[in-house]
UniProtKB/TrEMBL annotation, chain A:
It comes from Imhoffiella purpurea. It comes from the Bacteria. One of its GO terms (molecular function) is ATP binding. The keyword Nucleotide-binding applies. PANTHER family: SPERMIDINE/PUTRESCINE IMPORT ATP-BINDING PROTEIN POTA, SPERMIDINE_PUTRESCINE IMPORT ATP-BINDING PROTEIN POTA. This is ABC transporter. Gene3D superfamilies: P-loop containing nucleotide triphosphate hydrolases. Keywords: ATP-binding, Nucleotide-binding, Transport. Residues 1-232 form the ABC transporter domain.
TrEMBL record, chain B:
Belongs to the binding-protein-dependent transport system permease family. CDD domains: TM_PBP2. Residues 12-215 form the ABC transmembrane type-1 domain. It comes from Imhoffiella purpurea. One of its GO terms (cellular component) is plasma membrane. This is Molybdenum transport system permease protein ModB.
Length: 354, 221
């Protein structure tokens, strides 16, 4: 099965991007990271809109770029469906003509109609983009990208311009449409919900470096370093000042770790919000700052002795003491994740393409 | 002939003829250069500087250098005269060239900035959807920036109508032959016929305004 494989080295005006990615034919591969980390640049490099300084890009047997061999295939020959963040619809063309724009020769009006129907756009076929809502534009952009029969699909923040209510239904539609087709698909997003809902694999980019890459559940549960943990929404991060005999300590108190540390003193320990509980026995000293009922669970915002905030989730039947109360928090060892300052460059399994 | 033109009857027609030819040249060269300058082509900065030169360089000096270059004894004009018998200066082609050089940057710059701004992403989309540069130019760029093209043409033609410095050098200001409307106004002032100069100035103003309105309307389509 042809997968997309890229070894990218790109530099511009003080920014450097270095990433090796392998995108299998099936499923969705997400790229996440803070603003300016190079997510969109990766898509532009893959599409041929930017040129890497060195490295290679291959799709199956086809070499798109190889600096050493002097190969640099033009964007129009790469057969990439790229969906831009703001959709970039042609303002002078109707919805139907936008969708038909990239159609291969031989695909007639029936193919356009198929995509308009598939993405629920038939009633708007003759409208211009300016007369469409955000969600409709998003669907036109996706229909246009897919109608060109791409061999690789690249999506740059496809849901960023639609409101939360619409996002869920669009995700579902998107998942159905993409699942129908077997091609490497890269989704760039800053929305972690998009990643959890849609992606089979995720890569975390930090300052132009691919810090972690792997199955979505694995990457979310075990971030490789402090920065990756921050990107992946691990909000409970406690700075570590010392470590001895399996205990880590900081201004907030001390915690026992599960097993020996792989290397040196961690920069931070991250705490999973699910698992800790209030206790009368030994534990971290906390002051309850706020209790929020989230429906299926309760969120407790606590302050540690050094004023660090810590958020934990309690079952709905739990009845925590009121805000202002000083109490103790028991944190099971499996809820504590020591994190080095900087993770090692991820090893990408070669089986990812097979 | 109306009393408006009795002091310089051929000037209006000549100016309109020059404007007609220059409009076509602007349309072709303006779009081509605007598109080329928005792409990463070799010697882009040099080309950009050459196109922009008439914006910052005194017209009379540009006219003089072009006269030296294109005259019968010039590096370019000499061989053209000897081999083909062509005379670029003191003739209709000289007037066209003067109007073209003077107005070109005003046509190219709006087109270039429109392509680099609003059209850039659309061009990239077109490329990823399998279209080449030429197809992208006609299917995407021109339709999307048509208002900027109209604005550039308006500015360029307006500048060409009012051109004196380069036209004086390349056209020679020969009465009845290379005397454009602007040069006719200049000549009437030199002759002290201010009434005639006033009439011709109003005529030139109406002409420029009319052209502006037509091109603006075309840009809205």
């Amino acid at each position: 099965m042809p997968c997309l494989e890229a070894d990218l080295d790109f530099r511009r005006a003080g920014f450097r991007l270095a990433a090796r990615i392998r995108v299998p034919e099936t499923g969705i591969t997400a790229l996440v990271g803070p603003s300016g980390c190079g997510k969109t640049t990766v898509l532009r490099l893959l599409a041929g809109l930017e040129r890497p300084r060195s490295g290679h890009i291959r799709h199956g047997e086809h070499v798109w770029f190889d600096r050493g061999r002097g190969i640099d295939l033009a964007p129009r020959l790469r057969r990439v469906g790229l969906m831009f963040q703001d959709y970039a619809l042609f303002p002078h063309l109707s919805v139907a003509r936008n969708v038909a724009f990239g159609q291969p020769r031989g695909d007639g009006a029936e193919a356009v109609r198929f995509w308009l129907e598939r993405l629920q756009l038939l009633p708007f076929a003759e409208r211009r983009p300016h007369a469409l809502s955000g969600g409709q534009r998003q669907r036109v952009a996706l229909a246009r990208a897919l109608a060109s029969r791409p061999e690789v699909l690249l999506l740059d923040e496809p849901f960023s311009a639609v409101d939360l209510g619409l996002r869920q239904s669009l995700r579902l539609l998107f998942q159905e449409v993409v699942a129908d087709r077997s091609m490497p698909t890269v989704l760039v997003t800053h929305d972690l919900d998009d990643v959890r809902h849609l992606a089979d694999r995720v890569g975390v980019l930090v300052e132009g470096e691919l810090r972690q890459f792997g199955p979505t559940a694995e990457v979310f549960s075990t971030p490789c370093d402090a920065e990756v943990a921050r990107v992946l929404g691990w909000d409970n991060r406690l700075p570590v000042s010392g470590c001895e005999d399996g205990w880590v300590r900081g201004g907030w108190g001390c915690l026992r770790l599960n097993g020996a540390l792989a290397s040196g003193i961690p920069e931070l320990v991250a705490i999973r919000p699910h698992g800790p509980s209030l206790t009368e026995g030994p534990g971290l000293e906390v002051e309850i700052a706020r209790i929020t009922d989230m429906g299926g669970y309760r969120t407790l915002l606590c302050r540690l002795p050094d004023r660090t905030a810590l958020q934990i989730h309690l079952p709905p039947q739990a009845s925590p003491p009121p805000p202002g109360t000083r109490t103790r928090l028991s944190i099971p060892e499996h809820c504590i994740l020591p994190l080095p300052a900087r993770g090692r460059v991820p090893a990408i399994p070669s089986s990812a393409c097979n | 002939m109306t009393p408006w033109l009795d002091c310089s009857p051929a000037a209006l027609l000549l100016s309109l003829e020059v404007a007609g030819v220059v409009l076509v040249l602007f349309l072709v060269a303006g779009i081509a250069l605007g598109y080329a300058l928005s792409q990463p082509i070799p010697f882009r900065n040099l080309l950009d500087a050459l196109v922009s030169l008439p914006l910052v360089f005194p017209p009379i000096a540009i006219g003089f250098f072009l006269l030296m270059l294109l005259g019968r004894h010039g590096a370019v004009g000499g061989p053209l005269h000897e081999r083909f018998g062509w005379d670029l200066v003191f003739s209709f082609p000289g007037l066209v060239l003067a109007a073209f050089v003077a107005g070109l940057p005003l046509v190219v710059k709006p087109i270039q900035s429109a392509i680099e701004g609003s059209a850039r992403e659309l061009i990239e989309v077109s490329y990823t959807l399998g279209k080449g540069r030429l197809a992208t130019l006609f299917l995407v760029v021109i339709p999307v920036i048509r208002r900027h093209i109209a604005a550039g043409l308006t500015l360029g033609i307006g500048r060409s109508f009012g051109e004196v410095g380069i036209t004086l050098m390349l056209g020679g200001n020969i009465l009845g032959s290379t005397e454009t409307l602007s040069l006719a106004i200049y000549n009437q002032v030199l002759d002290g016929d201010f009434a005639c100069a006033t009439r011709l100035s109003i005529l030139l103003g109406i002409l420029s305004l009319g052209l502006f309105l037509i091109l603006r309307r075309l840009g809205r389509l």
